Amino acid sequence: MKRTVSRMEGISSFLNTRKLAYLLVAPTVVIFAAITLYPLLYSLHLSFFSWNLLRPSLGKVFIGLENYRRIVYDPVFWYSLKTTLYFMGASVALQFLIGLGLALLFNVEFKGRSVARSIILVPLLITPIVIGLMWKWLLNPEFGILNYFLSFVGVSSKSWLGDPSLALFTVIIVDVWHLTPFATLVLLAGLQALPEPLYEAARIDGASWWKMFRYITLPLLKPVILVVLLLRTIGTFATFPEIYALTQGGPGRATEVLGFLVYRTSFKEFHMGYGAALSYVMVVLVLVIALFYIKALPELEV
Amino acid sequence: MSLIRKVVGNSLLGFLLVVTFLIVLFPVAWTIMSSFKLQVDMFSIPPVWFFKPTLLYYIKIFTDKPIFKSILNSTVIASFTTIISVSVGSIAAYSLARFKFFGSRSLPVVILFGQMIPPITFIIPYFILMRKFALLDTHMAVIITHTCFTLSFVVWLMRSFFISIPRELEEAAIIDGCSQIGAFLRVVVPLAAPGLATTSIFCFLYSWNEFLYALMLTGVKTQTLPVVAASFVTPIGVLWGQLFSLVVIVMSPMLILGILIRKHFVKGLALGAVKG
Predict the structure, then answer these.
(1) pTM given for the model
(2) What ipTM describes this predicted complex?
(3) Domain A66-300 classified CATH 1.20.950.20?
(4) Which residues in chain B are contacts of A137 at CB distance < 8 A?
């Protein structure tokens, strides 16, 4: 008896449920459209115009695809793209390799492991601009403590941020300090979800540590590894505060990644149209990488 | 033989751990230490390890700059961002976790794409639009831009928390006479409370730490703490003393909040909660 009643209710509530489902999503959809989609479309629109805020008399002039044509012939853009790819490649590779090493280290049972994991969290919690400013001081050629420490191992004093051939490397190292814990923690969670019986079986068969790592850990960890690599790759496009604090894109253009080029074009030279077009090049690059990430996400079961 | 191996292995492990912690913690610890030093000691090489702590620069930033106001600005912006995105986003997340409807699969993906787009792309239209609507130097402008990121993040993180709550519990409540909304409020919300807390802290953390939007959209009235920190880098030099004490003020609450949610931290990370 009770069952039939609940079934009847089930049918009538099915229609209501649908309404409810839409009702609950509606505010998010509206806000998303207003504060995410609308600005994005507006920015796309801007990218077809020539508009310099410093010269308001010239106004906003429609020039079609001219901004994009200019980008193709702009050596500054290509140099910045090269810097970005170099930064991205080196930074993501280092974060991943060190992160994996640390994850394996933290996966070993030892006393105080949970405290250790809290400690490794610290760089992720610090305000990025503060990280930049803090390292600017540690790296200072005159009174920075890094040069002092390095003098003990016979490395001569260096101008880490002032030397064009060193600056990009230095910014990468700071980024690695900041975000390696990200790779460590996500990979560690992945390692801990791996089935222990598999390793036991391998041990009984006499497999070496390397063999187990190569044929069990790595293949099973693949989805997690993919997520780490993709998220960090996308993340490097958002690197701004550290570069703002450390080098402002300099010396010269040595550390001017795409994000900073857009910032300079739009908010130092106030070429809003050209800046928007440049930023859309970034959007396309990010979306391509994001597609892979979204494909990998279901496997992760977060 | 195996004993020797064990001892060697353990000491190697210990050594690597110590080196890791030194690299992670030293820059932070050294900055905190230096915030209690006098200018002379701050810059001396070889460094001064033992000194009489002073609060000089802490007092100085509160007297020289309207720091109380900036703390208030940061708190107001981060709180509103959190409240808006968590309340709006989590009901959407619930719907997406429980019901199948047109768009229930594609909507999260579209939202996620929005989250991946670099902030520098958004700041150009935001800056122009906020100027047009006379919202520059208002809390609202920054809250809007921060919500742009946090909302999509809330939807994803809360959805994963809701999915982990068994549907049967709600159904049981409904059979016992609860309405759908009653079941949500009495059964789901209490079970999702840790998830809600974690998500809220992530939102707060993001908003508190965010720099680019705050830099471009705030002015004298609404400056947040990260913007003030950057303002100590002046054309004539860096006011290190003031900067260090501000750094400690900005950093400490976030360290505490972050340690509180360490259990769920990875879940947030995998969904992009921490931006480069």
Answers:
(1) 0.88
(2) 0.87
(3) no
(4) 31, 238, 240
